[in-house]
Queue: 4 jobs
Job 1
Amino acid sequence: MQIINGKSGWIEIICGPMFSGKSEELIKRLRRAQIAKRRVQIFKHGSDARYDATSIVSHSQMSLPGVAISDINELMELVDDRTELVAIDEGQFFSDDILAVTNKLANQGKRIIVAGLDMDYLGNPFGPMPKLMCSAEYVSKQLAICMSCGDPANFTQRLTQATEQVVVGADETYEARCRLHFEPAFESSLQQAKKKTKNKANG
Ligand code: ADP
């Protein structure tokens, strides 16, 4: 990725379905910034405490410590003037206020990276992510591997009957699917998941 030189700040978005490596990519960019001795602050949404209440943790167990917040407006008080890079994980869970906050910080000359799901379990745009992608200088779309066929996967398949937009979970609740195998209607997916478990049990 080409990095802008000079005094201008900018916004980078890392998006895609679950298991697509968003957290790994975020951690990689942050580690490189730390090696370059940039002043970094890391935030994540408080509702995602799957592995650790504050750290950013990938499904492959890479991790970096951060601060959990639930209201994006808290960020303006927590970000130090001298901070050069602000990272936000699970961007989809924040309100649309994240647009004003990230743009304000970028306008101050900071590098902002937001990672998050671009679509929910129905394949609909998730929270503020689409708007953030419009105002960002750089957008990286990650793909996972479809658990049905092994093709590149753009969708997050929910394997339970819950119908709320936000249900925090990992392997037991969600899997990555390609366009062909993504089924927003949960019932047939549920049956497939049950069949898979039964087949596994029968060897
Ligand atoms: P995300 O933040 O997008 O949910 P992570 O960075 O946490 O993704 O995890 C990516 C890692 O998840 C991969 O490197 C791999 O080890 C693991 N993984 C598990 N299931 C899949 C899948 N279906 N496709 C790709 N990676 C997967």
Job 2
Amino acid sequence: MKKILITGALGQIGSELTMTLRERYGAENVIATDINKNESNVVYSGPFEHLDVTNDRDFFNIAKKHKVDTVIHLAALLSATAEQKPLLAWNLNMGGLVNALEVSRELDLQFFTPSSIGAFGPSTPKAQTPQDTIQQPTTMYGVNKVSGELLCNYYFNKFGVDTRGLRFPGLISYVAPPGGGTTDYAVEIYYKAIKQGHYTSYIDQGTYMDMMYMPDALNAIIGLMEADPTKLVHRNSFNVSAMSIAPEDVEAAIKKHIPTFTMDYQVDPVRQQIAQSWPDAIDSTCAVDEWGFKVQYDLAKMTEDMLWHLNKKWLGEKVEKGAI
Ligand code: AKB
């Protein structure tokens, strides 16, 4: 990775990945693209281009103009929105992906796109979900993710494109909020804990899902992209997780810092059904063995960091580390 084009750069992963890669590889070497534009650092700290990933010619022209050697394709709808708008999800998630792969084939680029725990379904083993197992998802998002994993394998086997990918769990971050995901509760809960001291969870208690703190997710992307290709048995769909948690676990972790925090439940049937169709806890052993995946944050450490950063964001510099 020397010159990188990122799609969906203003989204939850893109906002932080763009800044991290600009620090590592030089601001001018990371071309952020998105269908939207805002006033953030991502737009002003380096090259930014408007890109609708379903427009194949624009995609090709921007990649060629900037002479990139890598595409990190993040633009996609998440699970809950995809379930509300399945046709849009198919067109954007699959149309964008095939365009990104075609550009990578035509220009001989290295390629990354995230898959998800959503690529699994109710018939998948729920505990210690293996790397290679049954994948029969019941959501449009899951259908997109399984198809995407297979398509990336196809582009590697057929055309030799250096495709790589991770099955991300729910990602938690204090920078940019996610939108339209099933795991979003695990981000919202921290925002509401600080702003209102109370959270109403749309995911029921006892519902376990895999999660990861954003710094670990960014390290995982870089670790996989820089990994020795001869060591990779899998390529496009590594299971990676840092913790398996239910809403009441996050509640308890927050209460250690904010004892007055309260939580109740108003379950959203659509997102609850999606959550129940996903694994409780996936097994990341192949990622550990093939390219050295590791995480720094468990629930307690992540909670301390999230609350500290959110307090700092809203209350200013007055907050001392350790005071939260
Ligand atoms: C979602 O909830 O849709 C995403 C995911 C797990 O892929 N966060």
Job 3
Amino acid sequence: MDLLFVCLGNICRSPAAEGVALVLSRGDSRIGRIDSAGMGPWHAGNPPHVTMCEVARAAGYPIDDLRARQVDRSDFFEFDWILAMDRQNQRDLLALQATFGGKAKIRLLLDGAPDGIYEVPDPYGGAISDFQDSFSLIRSGVRAFLAHP
Ligand code: 4NP
């Protein structure tokens, strides 16, 4: 399966999810391509937010080398799963798929997660603790997804 993680800017939440998935899926023959993208174009080409880089690196998931990009029509055809960080992302992705078509299954990353929280809060502009809280949710969400896709 090919996995695409999506948030709004592709510099905080979805690159963190990509970084966690890259590590946790090592040696997992079910997993093909792993990528992330943002709904908006603003940060295309940029590395992830410096605070998310620090939080992810401290947890053992380096994401400094990732670069942001915007969601593209081809994503809906190339990826099996598109995992949205919040309900607004999910709605926007479903609206694009209604126009573009494509086989990708779109769901919230945290849909199968154990915490009873279904959206990853956007930490952009927040304190380091906001980044840490979002990162923890992302890590358990990716774990839960890989256990039960
Ligand atoms: P992300 O956070 O969606 O988790 O990457 C954001 C980053 C940037 C913006 C919004 C959210 N922005 O509006 O620039």
Job 4
Amino acid sequence: MNENSIYDLIIVGGGPGGFTTGIYAMRAALKTVLIEKGIAGGQLNNTEEIENWPGTEKISGSQLAANIAKHADQYGLEVVTREVVMIEPGLDYHAVELDDGTILRAHAIILGTGGSPKRLEVPGENEYYGKGVSYCAVCDGFFYRNKTVVIVGGGDTALEEALYLAKIATKVYIAHRRDQFRAGMILQKRVSADKKIEVMWNTVVREVKADELGVNEVELQDTQTGESRQLATDGVFIFIGFEPNNHLVPAGTKMNADGYVHTDERCETNTVGIFAIGDLREKYARQILTAAADGCTAALAAAHYVENRKASV
Ligand code: NAP
């Protein structure tokens, strides 16, 4: 990386979308750099097993992340491990400022900053984070061998993580606010067949309580009757969806009411030359596959955009 060098394309975020963009951009001979603040693969690393990546019946998230990063590396993709603090659109070039003050410039920017777990916003959640409250079963499940855990949520993530935790813990409760899961049927069938998992329908967690050793109880409320009760537990795993990481999206870029970035079919935002991919983008399905597909689309569109710009100067 050279502070004065101008790139064709800067990719912000090293999830499956960002690295797929990198592969396609290198194949299109774009001078490209990918900036990622953490480890390659992003959220993929928090997924135990992936069973819907076509051509691969089963693979761990961390292995798939490593494979994708290695694939991009074979094309010579430059990867910088730094945090991006600001993106400033410009007429000649867009600028990306890193946390060490370096400013990089490029014709096009692709934002693939993904999302973060939503918070439940109940008493005890923040206080006991890391002391029994978790948002990642693969990261923290190990601590719950032969223990009891409560999972909050009814989507694909909650059910997948419940199945994972049931292999470790003695008892897994799922507290879901409705009487029907949002998750797909395959996961629902697996959960109902797992004897260690007990679903508490129409139930919300109102408070997480702890003693000096960490979380020891949750206060539950029945959403139908309003009745409250206490349940002893060693941990609480919260999987109630994601929020887009949109803090770097430049002012004036259109987003929907939930903060997902609006793009056209080429993944380009209304800010010319700035593209959004993966979980950050407004779309129907948020999957590893669709993040990668967005990466492909955005890279091809960016290549076309950069070519036209260079031809016009
Ligand atoms: P999600 O699909 O948005 O589900 C969130 C769940 O949490 C819903 O059941 C929701 O209840 C519940 N919830 C939301 N806010 C709540 C609150 N304040 N209190 C209590 N419960 C609350 O989120 P996700 O499961 O993280 O999945 C995100 C996306 O990734 C989805 O598109 C999903 O399909 C995808 N995904 C796919 C796979 C896979 O294909 N294997 C795996 C993981 C994730 P309601 O149902 O009542 O709204």
